[in-house]
Amino acid sequence: MDELGMIVAMLDEEPSAHGEQDGRRRLTFATTGSPAPRLRASTRPRFALFGGFGLAGAAAAVTAGAVLLSSGTTPRAPDHDDASSASRLMLAAAHSAERESVQPHGRYWEIQTQVGGRMVEDGKSYNFVQRKGKYDAGPGKDAWGTQKMVSKKYFGPTSDQGSRTAMMNSFTWTKESWTPGEMYEILPGSRYPGDVRKIPGTPAGAKTYLDGVLKKSGFPTEPGQWAFTNAPAVLAAPVGPQVRAAVYRLLATAPGLRLVGKVKDPLGRSGTAFSLRGKGGGMVYDYQLIIDTKAGRVLADRTVLVKTGPAWADKKAGDVINYSAVLSYGWTDKVPAYPPLPNDAPSPKK
Prior knowledge:
Blueprint: H1 3-11, E1 26-27, E2 55-56, E3 61-62, H2 83-97, E4 108-121, E5 124-136, E6 143-157, E7 174-178, H3 203-216, H4 223-229, H5 231-235, H6 241-251, E8 258-264, E9 270-280, E10 283-292, E11 297-307, E12 320-332
Antiparallel strand pairs: 1-12, 2-3, 3-4, 4-5, 4-12, 5-6, 6-7, 8-9, 9-10, 10-11, 11-12
Helix pairs in contact: 1-2, 2-6, 3-6
Keywords: Membrane, Transmembrane, Transmembrane helix
Organism: Actinomadura harenae
Transmembrane segments: 47-69
């Protein structure tokens, strides 16, 4: 066993725990349309590119933050906070990722996630948890989104309004047609969205390509930091093992990268958390990325309060205020036969 393999083995003493796999699908492991904007899958702050909290959908908005959503564990103080430790373990994840076998191809690239946060409807705020699926056959073909609310609890009044949407009020699975090709884009909806399939399989090449896409789109963001705060969009994208490994190696160079240590993700799975610190709205927060370093797979990302502000006066340092957990990703040939989301446009013919 080489040095990186030893690091991975020591770090992941417990067996990996992943989501249930549907036997009918060939999954490995595991968004704004027209005429009405659609809710994106993430509900957390973005460094530089998405500067603060906020997410608006056709009829729902995530306010300046989400809420404390129990992940089964309270993030503990960092075991190591030096950049070299974080970089070494991120490189170990890269080592694991590049050993993953190439999976059989299918018609759709599929990602299943669970997200939690706070949404606003008609001047009222709610804590919510939602399951989401995305199926994309690629540009010029067809794409679908599926969703099901898991829970939605009234939190209190708010000065923000937000509109009501069927997407955030259906407690049974529904589906809707999406713009095809968005899951292949680095910056969906941008004038220069880029293409994840064009990311080179070397860290230098990945950095150069991402830097070009970001600058063309008017976001002169450091590529490593952008990749960290948008990691699931790349690491759970239709790319090969070499590209995933290259992105992990790019993440290892992200300015400000810190190692939090072993944690449980929002679904109770063991992983290693890395973080970047941000601030805004009078508060300080850690954007954490949780990775199964033994498998080289992204588990989840979440936002953890470091210092509360006016929007979080009722919270305390260490509270997880929003998250997105990756359940599975990979190729499949079928989209579930769920009923259409109310008011969705007619489905395109297959």
